[in-house]
Amino acid sequence: MAKSQLQRLLWLQGNKCFYCKKSLKPADASIDHVMPKSLGGKDIVENKVVCCKTVNQLFADMPMKEKLRCLIQWEGVLPCPKPPSD
Ligand SMILES: [Zn+2]
Questions:
Q1: Prediction pTM value
Q2: Residue 29, strand partner residues
Q3: Burial of 80 (0-12, 13-18, 19+ CB in 10 A)
């Protein structure tokens, strides 16, 4: 079920990462809670975006304010870190 939601969200985003806008395969994608659950964010679709696994790990439980600041610093298109090549 979680997987199909990821695929649906990804499709709604044009199969692109929410943050870096690069083409994203489901295998490299993960669901990011815009407002982290640990800070009271709800587990609802309105609070979810699909993004590269790498940036999701980087954001982790970062407050929305910090994420916004980061996006603004990068002028709206954040370069997601590359996944470790192995
Ligand atoms: Zn990305």
A1: 0.88
A2: 52
A3: buried
78's tokens:
């954040």
Q: Mean pLDDT over residues 18-47, rounded?
A: 95
Per-domain residue ranges for the chain? 2-73
Gap from CA of 6 to ligand 1 centroid (Å): 14
Q: Does domain 2-73 have CATH number 1.10.30.50?
A: yes
Closest CA to 71 of 84, 58, 53: 58
Q: How far is the CA of 29 from the centre of ligand 1 (A)?
A: 8
Joined together, the tokens standing for residue 4 give 């199909």
Sign of CA dihedral 30, 36, 42, 47: negative
